[in-house]
Design brief:
732 residues, Rossmann fold
């Protein structure tokens, strides 16, 4: 419709949700697989959007599906797309890596994490499958919304299949500081998976800030903390805080309609948790014990009602936790119980929402004290159900909910004495104070309910694409000033894709006037040595750049020449020129559909940029086969396959040759090295220079790199050269 913005058009298109679970689960009974609604607020939050806009919910049905069994997915106003998992995958991907590795790591409990390569590989495979299924379902979607830590790698597969898709992710649990997250052997892979998204949401700002720290320090991504943007290669990701709410009206109405409790003078302190080591149940019991020790007047007058919902009982650590809680409860009850009173009533089972609403309503104090929690909806549900005599919420300061539920009594859950004192304060708080605190909490939670959460996230997700401002001197100064310091600088630069944009034909790849000026200004400094290292022949790269004061390395460093150095030609090259000609002849047979061969003496390149994408795969495979069978090494480059002699020489060794020749064996003490490249052949130099240099990978974010940092394009390289040329001169 004329005048309709792209944003409003996107907001009317179908939405695709990918989560570990479907909106219902299947359980095996004597009648076969029976479908039951999945618990939790996510389903109730997202289903209305899917019903209104249409779309698909992708997820695991909750059990393995045996041969001959059928899943009923009918009766929905949107598509249901099950992703089936084998028993091994359930054990390794779900119970293993997701819950024995990521769950404790993301809750900042690395000592509880298990690092198993087989489980990581299963997590990768399942995420690949989720990503492939989601991409197939999302070709016309206005938004693909991936949910939670089970699917942190799936966005990168979706982006690969649908490069223009609107892609968002929400993390429903905490995100830890960098010093914790980097303990993961696969931290970089997980971060790269998430950075394929346009928007990443967390519950609170501190989790978002932790994520920004991680991508900057582990991946070398460019970060704007004020705008909460990440630039990684050619992609920019927006990061935001979206505190999750609850169905406030539902819980309020359930509490109003629940049967009234039996009149009693007994005060109830309530704990409601899934049985999990993050919930702080043992510490809570110890705090209640300390209350009874310090304030004997509460004996026979206050009861701790602790509800523990069974969880992951097949995991040994959770069974151990249950035994610990059973023992603690027994100790406290054995020590303080009387003939008519037990201090702790411990219920290990599930309750319906209707039952919980009545329990919430009638509790005098809610003791919500997780050791770490993404948000914690129990605190919000308790507030919504306080429709009679106002109670008091005691809340862990380490729960995400503490950021907004400021009127609660905040405690450190491991401070047993402090929590006991908070309990005493709550039990003696005047009604006027209780009512005032609760009224403020209820107003906020009614306003910021689950519908508001969905709406705020979707508005941000379909908004204008995020972009960072062009690179400034401040960016490079922050990265390089301290690193270079007063040292001499050795600057190594690739040519194609680094100093000039990639072109359909190498002859068209000319330096722009602005890049040439910045490069020349760097070369004029007496404290800077520049080398251009390229896959082109030495003569070709030297003529393309045309600055005599620079050094040049051609054929991936097999030929090197420059001021102050003797010309270098690898001694084994003479043995390979004839073989390169033979390979070129064989490759000519597959120079089809626009493919062509660039001969460069001892090396050559098979170019296929002009070949239609649907015709490339067979040609690439055949080119690799021809090159490898001839005894050469086949290396993938940008829309090309490089044929390199098998003489153990690459750009990394070429850099070492230049550094040792120029600065001696102790070069690392005499000079600081910066290397900039865009190709897989530059990865050899990145790996060699790891820990010894500042390295930059230019271009797309869809390739893994050993480089220290990313630059999106040639214009960013020009900005780097401009800063290097204008940086403060070296002083002694």
């Amino acid at each position: 419709m004329p005048g309709t913005s792209d944003t409003s058009v996107e907001s009317q298109k179908p939405i695709v949700v990918a989560s570990n679970r479907l909106p219902f689960t299947f359980q095996r009974t004597s009648k076969g697989l029976e479908r039951r609604p999945s618990p939790g607020g996510l389903v109730s939050a997202l289903e209305p959007v899917l019903r209104k806009r249409g779309g698909t919910w992708i997820g695991w049905p909750g059990t393995d599906v045996r041969e001959g069994e059928q899943l009923s997915t009918r009766g929905e106003a949107y598509r249901i797309c099950p992703v089936l998992l084998s028993e091994t995958e359930i054990a390794r991907y779900y119970h293993g890596f997701s819950n024995r590795t990521l769950w404790p790591m993301l809750h900042s409990m690395p000592v509880r994490a298990r690092f198993d390569t087989r489980e990581w590989e299963s997590y990768q495979r399942v995420n690949e499958r989720f990503g492939a299924v989601t991409a197939e379902e999302a070709t016309d979607a206005g938004l693909v919304w991936v949910q939670d830590y089970h699917l942190m790698l799936a966005p990168s597969r979706i982006r690969k299949e649908l490069p223009d898709a609107r892609l968002a992710f929400f993390m429903h649990i905490p995100f830890p500081p960098h010093d914790v997250f980097r303990v993961l052997p696969w931290d970089k892979e997980l971060l790269r998976g998430l950075l394929a998204c346009d928007l990443i949401g967390f519950h609170v700002r501190s989790y978002a800030q932790n994520f920004l720290d991680c991508v900057e320090r582990s991946l070398g991504a460019r970060v704007d903390r004020d705008a909460q943007l990440v630039e990684y290669g050619d992609l920019t990701t927006r990061v935001g805080a979206f505190p999750l709410g609850i169905e406030f009206s539902l819980f309020e109405s359930l509490a109003v309609g629940a049967p009234k409790k039996r009149e009693s003078d007994q005060k109830i302190v309530l704990g409601v948790d899934r049985l999990d080591y993050t919930k702080g149940i043992p510490e809570r019991i110890l705090a209640f014990q300390r209350l009874l020790e310090r304030y004997p007047e509460y004996r026979e007058k206050v009861t701790l009602l602790q509800i523990a919902v069974p969880s992951r009982s097949q995991v040994a650590e959770y069974r151990k936790l249950k035994s610990e809680i059973d023992e603690l409860v027994g100790n406290v009850n054995g020590r303080f119980a009387t003939a008519y009173w037990s201090p702790i009533q411990y219920l290990y089972r599930s309750f319906s929402q209707r039952q919980l609403a009545a329990i919430y309503r009638d509790a005098d104090v809610a003791l919500v004290t997780p050791l770490r929690d993404g948000m914690n909806l129990v605190a919000k549900e308790y507030v919504a159900c306080q429709v009679d005599d106002p109670g008091v919420l005691i809340l862990s300061s380490l729960a995400g909910a503490a950021d907004t539920m400021r009127e609660a009594l905040l405690v450190n859950p491991v401070d047993i004495d402090g929590t006991a004192e908070a309990l005493h304060r709550a039990l003696t708080m005047e009604e006027e104070v209780r009512r005032s605190r609760l009224a403020a909490l209820r107003r906020r939670e009614r306003r910021d309910n689950v519908d508001a959460w969905v709406e705020s996230f979707l508005q941000r997700a379909v908004g204008a694409p995020a972009t960072l401002t062009p690179f400034t001197d401040e960016d490079f100064a922050a990265w390089l000033s301290e690193f270079i310091g007063q040292y001499r600088l050795a600057l190594f630069l690739d040519y194609d894709g680094t100093l000039c944009s990639l072109q359909d034909h190498p002859s068209q790849a000319r330096l722009s006037k602005r890049v040439r000026e910045s490069l020349g200004a760097c070369a004029e400094r007496d404290d800077t040595d520049i080398s251009v290292i390229s896959g082109r022949s030495l003569q070709d790269v030297r003529s393309m750049v045309g600055l005599e004061q620079l050094s040049y390395a051609g054929n991936h460093g097999l030929e090197i020449a420059g001021p102050g150095m003797a010309d270098f030609v690898h001694e084994d090259l003479a043995h390979y020129r004839e073989r390169a000609e033979e390979i070129a002849g064989d490759l000519e047979e597959i120079a089809l559909g626009g493919a062509w061969i660039e001969a460069k003496g001892p090396t050559l390149t098979y170019h296929y940029r002009a070949v239609p994408e649907n015709g490339r795969r067979a040609l690439i495979e055949r080119a690799h086969e021809i090159i490898n069978q001839a005894g050469y090494q086949a290396r993938d480059a940008h829309c090309a396959v490089e044929a390199i002699p098998p003489i153990g020489w690459d750009k990394g060794r070429a850099v070492l040759h230049v550094l040792r020749t120029r600065y001696g064996a102790s070069w690392s003490e005499a000079v600081r090295v910066v290397y900039v490249g865009d190709d897989q052949t530059d990865e050899d130099a990145f790996r060699f220079l790891a820990g010894l240099a500042m390295t930059f990978r230019v271009g797309s974010a869809d390739t893994h790199t050993a480089a220290s940092r990313r630059l999106p394009d040639v214009e960013a390289v020009r900005a780097l050269l401009r800063w290097l040329a204008r940086r403060r001169p070296k002083t002694r």
